[in-house]
Amino acid sequence: MKPLKADLLILLVTIFWGSSYLFMKMGLDSIAEFNLIALRFGLAFILAGAIFFRRLLRIDKTTIKYAALLGFILFLVFTSITFGLKTTTTSNAGFIVSLTVVFVPLISALIWKNKIEARLTISIMLAIIGIAFLTIQLPFSITIGDFLCMAAAFFYAAHIIVVGFAAQKVDTLNLGILQLGFAGLFGLVFSFIFETPTLPGSTKGWFAILALSILCSALGFILQTVAQKYTSPERTGLIFSLEPVFAAFFGYLFAQEIMSLKEYIGAILVLLSITLSTIKKKDSAEELNVEKNNRIDCIDLTRDLEKST
């Protein structure tokens, strides 16, 4: 596969993920929050499991342990987002959750006691100012939804770091598929406890759930895995930074969400912080080593995928 084609596939995945905020908001019109999580990840697990059934026959206990942990963190991510979307816009949610790429190096620096670079410090400052422009409304109030989306960004950063650690120890394809199943299972359990599990009662609800399950979860995961073998991590990170732009676009196009000038300024600052945080020095061996230890081993994951097919 040529790098241009791989970049286009990554862009397609980014569009899927950018649209997910709108689909989640649509789905919440038909079913409750935990119910939506259960259906989204449950159906994604069934689809991915059916495709890679033979691979899943070789699961070990270590894989199940890490998958359960990652599934729970993923459940926390989307619990925060789905509840957050009840009181914030899809545009705000997209930009705030995208701060994951700023949180990842920050958390890594704190865990491994690495020196926080000037580049990361500037990224954090830009992100904080951008979030303030996006979320603070006169007379100086922030919605609970915005706080929940910030929590989602933090949880997702933790998820990425744990994946980077677990990927060195277990079969990464099985890990990726099983975490979807555990996330759906946690959603189902909480739905039974706090809600009454149901199926969507409208065509709109089913469309949202199927789009989230097939496009944003199962297909997005597979396409990302294949494409990242043929493009660089830097290019991938920069393309993924467009996710909030697509979230804002879909929010405007289908939900008539119009951002104010203040919010546009905040969005631009957040994008600048994300872009700055994804730029790596190619001549720094130490940086490359840290990146290697804390990033999913995309090449191994792709080989697993190809073997399964």
From TrEMBL:
Signal peptide: none annotated. It is a multi-pass membrane protein. InterPro entries: Diverse_Substrate_Transporter, EamA_dom, EmrE-like. The keyword Transmembrane applies. Residues 5-135, 144-278 form the EamA domain. GO terms for cellular component: plasma membrane. Belongs to the EamA transporter family. This is DMT family transporter. It comes from Psychrobacillus soli. The lineage of its organism: Bacteria, Bacillati, Bacillota, Bacilli, Bacillales.
